[in-house]
Amino acid sequence: MVTFIKNILPRIVGYTEQLDKIESFCDRQWLLFDNDVNTQTYEFLRDGRLVMTFVSRESDQQTTIGKWEILPSSRMLIHRPEPLVLDHAFLGEGVLIFLKSGTNESPFCLYDPKLILDGNVERYLNSFIDNKHSEIPLANNKIIQEVEYLDLDNYSEENVVLYRKVHRNGTVFNEGNVTTYGDRILVISEGVIVKILEWVPYHIPNGEILIRQSKFHEPAIGCDVLHANKPAPDGEYKLNFFEKITTRDGKIVEYGDNHVLVLTLFFIFIVGGLLISVHFI
């Protein structure tokens, strides 16, 4: 399988997303693909922490908290705890592939077990290539998956992908929202899946809330919010260091993101420290 990853990389690298879109891989659990029977998972958190879990053949589990960051060269540096520099090779909806910088070692391949349910990365990437060979552009530079229609009366969750055409009762399903077997919502417009909404958990002081939001994107005004399997009480919720929401009647009515403010203050702090240092030299 590792040989397959090496061989297919040249064919998929042109379709990769960039690592600066951290919503594409953050706050998701990734499973390391290798030829060992041990299991390793990686979870990149938005605050720079890296949660790594190792489960051995004997079912012993160890969890380590490391760090990750994107370097100016667009490479990723992770500490586990020893530093490891990874060259970005491919980031797709369900697969994240790196090459270990400065070596000829095997690719460092991670996959999302929620999207690749059976762990068959080879089949997933072959399907990805087939889809790319048959896609056609839309006016907004998105694509429609032309390989086959998704039959809303008979399908598997792994075949639910963005921009795939859909059928119901043998005819094109033009407009509307459809709840999948996995409790995701498909937003369909002009017979095409244009958005996939799923429940994303966020930890809060008194437990956990679930927000039904677009995959790989921040929460948005109008998203449903649950707490203890009920519509979340009206109020303000801090999702993490950067983001907070305000809810009313179980829906988001305000969304705040202070990434830019924090980074600006950090920059001012660094520059101010440098100026003070120069002053006293």
Task: Report on this structure.
The structure is a single chain. By secondary structure, the protein is an alpha+beta fold. 16% of the residues lie in helices and 43% in strands. It contains three helices and 21 strands. It has an eight-stranded antiparallel β-barrel with strand order 1-2-3-4-5-6-7-8. The chain has a six-stranded antiparallel β-sheet with strand order 13-14-15-16-17-18, with no helix packed on it. Mean pLDDT is 78; it is low at 134-147.
Task: Write a compact overview of the structure shown.
The chain has 281 residues and is an alpha+beta fold. It contains 3 helices and 21 strands. It is globular.
Q: How far apart are the termini?
A: 57 Å
Rg, rounded, reads 21 Å
Shape: globular
Helix and strand run: HEEEEEEEEHEEEEEEEEEEEEEH
Percentage of residues assigned to helices: 10-25%
**Helix/strand class:** alpha+beta
Count of helix runs: 3
Mean pLDDT: 78
Let me know the largest β-sheet. Answer: 8 strands, antiparallel, barrel
In what range is the share of β-strand residues? Answer: 35-45%
What oligomerization state is this entry in? single chain
**Strand line-up across the major sheet:** 1-2-3-4-5-6-7-8
Q: How many E strands?
A: 21
**pLDDT < 50 runs, ≥5 residues:** 134-147
